[in-house]
Amino acid sequence: MAKDQFIAEEPRTETTTVIFSPTSVLDGLGSVIDPHSTGSAKVNEISKFSPGDKVATDSLTIISDGLYPYGLMTSEFDDEGVPQRKNVLVERGVFKDFIYDQFYAIKDGTKSTGNGLRQDDTFFVFDGKYGAMPINRTSNFFVKPGNKTLEQLIEEVKHGILVDHFSWLTPDGTTGNFSSEVRVGYYIENGELTKPIKGGLIAGNIFDMVKNISGISNQSMITSGGSVLAGICPYIRFENVQVAGK
To answer: 65: closest CA among 132, 154, 182, 144?
Structure first.
């Protein structure tokens, strides 16, 4: 992959199929689904979600799983001493319920779901989180894997792009809008990875993209992104994604 970057080309401008790597899925979906799934967003009336809303394709299920084996945020208790657990955020494309820390649980007349967690401003410095106050957020952001291998996701694409790394994928947590440079990617032509690419931008809106998922891999990775601390995510294939290049 490193050698390929010496010969990588800037992608061309088009609307096409794009496959996100697990780290990109974590940063892309986690940065948006997380804040809109919290009791904080509900109480402050800034969430786009309500229980029962159809927010994504049937293939997407997302869980805040504080008990996932070897997950980076796995612990018996959250940072307020409440037992962590599995909280389903989205099930088969339908938003299920909000997650709470103790403060917003009291404000909303309910109980904490074990989601009062410390988060340092520098996401990859785990030890530094203990200098921060607990906030209402997801634990391990677990996207349930699909039923196809990565190879099958690629084989089904006539023309598209696989993005392994973005320069810094940070969607707006309120609107879901994003625009980020491709750092490491490959063209897909007739079901095969071909030319390496880098540069150019991929732009869109996460709320729209999760309604245009055409495949999720059965391979997942325990990962930490640049914007979200911890997740267990598969590869996800999105349709009709805007690429801005040469």
So the answer is: 144
Q: Pick the last residue of a domain from 105, 128, 143.
A: 143
Tell me the three state secondary structure of residue 104. Answer: helix
Torsion of the alpha carbons at 195, 12, 169 and 187, rounded to the nearest 10: -20
**pTM, full prediction:** 0.92
What is the reported pLDDT for 186? Answer: 97
CA distances 4 to 155, 162, 190, 197, Å, are 21, 14, 20, 8
Residues of the chain with pLDDT under 70: 120-129
Instruction: Among 122, 143, 164, identify where a domain stops.
Output: 143
Number of structural domains the chain divides into: 2
Taking only the tens place, the pLDDT of each residue in 179-206 is 999 999 999 999 999 999 999 999 999 9
| Per-residue pLDDT at 38 | 97
Same domain as 73, residue 13: no
Any alpha helices (H) in 111-242, and if so which ranges? 150-155, 206-209
Report the relative pairing of strands 177-189 and 159-166 from DSSP bridges. Answer: antiparallel
The residue assigned the tokens 């096409």 is 16
As a whole number, the mean pLDDT across the chain is: 93
Q: How crowded is residue 112: how many other Cβ atoms within 10 Å of its Cβ?
A: 21
Dist CA 23 CA 227 (whole Å): 10
Which domain covers residue 75, as residue numbers? 30-143
